[in-house]
Structure formats: C-alpha cells, structure tokens
Amino acid sequence: MMQPELLIADEATSMLDASLRVNVLNVLKDLRDQLGMTVLFITHDIGQACYLADRVLVMENGVMVEQGTTDEVIFNPQHEYTKRLLADVPKLHEEIELHDLQEELQQAGGLA
C-alpha cells in the first residue's frame, strides 16, 4: 500500500457546506497526527489554517510576506497584509479578544 509523506490540499474545503468542511478538516488532521503525513493546506480561510496548521505561510500576490508557527502569525502578526487578513475575519462578539481566543484554544488542546 502506498504511504505518501505529503498531501497537497488546495482549497479542499472551499465549496463544501459547514458539516462536510469540518469532516474534511478532521480527516486531514488525523492523517497528519496519526500517520505523520505532511499536509500542505492551501486556503483563503485563516480560521481553517489556524485549526489545522502547525505553521502558517502568508502570501500576497504570489509573494510570501510572513511565515512562522500558527501562534506567531495569528496572534502576533508582523506584516501589514497579515494584519489586514486577520482584521477581516468575522467577529462573533466585539468584546472577544484574540488573547482570550488563544487561551481558550490552548486550554482545549487546539494550539501548542
């Protein structure tokens, strides 16, 4: 049986409804965690990248502008484009701060 080391998922969830999207993300996460497979997850959805990725690479017009661990890039962005992307993420409640979200994810085991 083939056991690839790399899976390239290019916009793998972009045309799926929410329930299927979660299933696909969980399968990709299981492949990564249980089989040690590298998943190159290409997306415009920074929330999905945050859920799945250990590392994030941000590109603007085909040029890499920022990279680092998910925590570094999402919770301490350095590049203006990354900051704009994060500012465009819909907010469920204006009082929720990124720091609070980071603490909740860490407590839930979602982030290292």
The CATH topology turns out to be Rossmann fold
**Strand order across the largest sheet:** 1-2
Q: What's the oligomerization state?
A: single chain
Overall 3D shape: globular
Can you give the mean pLDDT? Answer: 83
By CATH's scheme, which homologous superfamily applies? P-loop containing nucleotide triphosphate hydrolases
Uncertain regions: pLDDT < 50 for 5+ in a row? none
So what's the CATH class? Alpha Beta
Describe the overall structure.
The structure is a single chain. This protein has helices spanning 18-35, 46-52, 70-75, 80-87, 98-107, and strands spanning 6-10, 38-42, 55-60, 63-69. By secondary structure, the chain is α+β, with helices and mostly antiparallel strands. It has a single domain (6-107), classed as Rossmann fold (3-Layer(aba) Sandwich). A hairpin with a 2-residue loop joins strand 3 (55-60) and strand 4. The protein is globular. The termini are far apart.
SSE arrangement:
Elements: E1 6-10, H1 18-35, E2 38-42, H2 46-52, E3 55-60, E4 63-69, H3 70-75, H4 80-87, H5 98-107
Parallel strand pairs: 1-2
Antiparallel strand pairs: 3-4
List the main descriptive attributes of the protein structure presented here.
two-stranded antiparallel ribbon; 5 helices; alpha+beta; Rossmann fold; single chain; 4 strands; two-stranded parallel ribbon; 112 residues
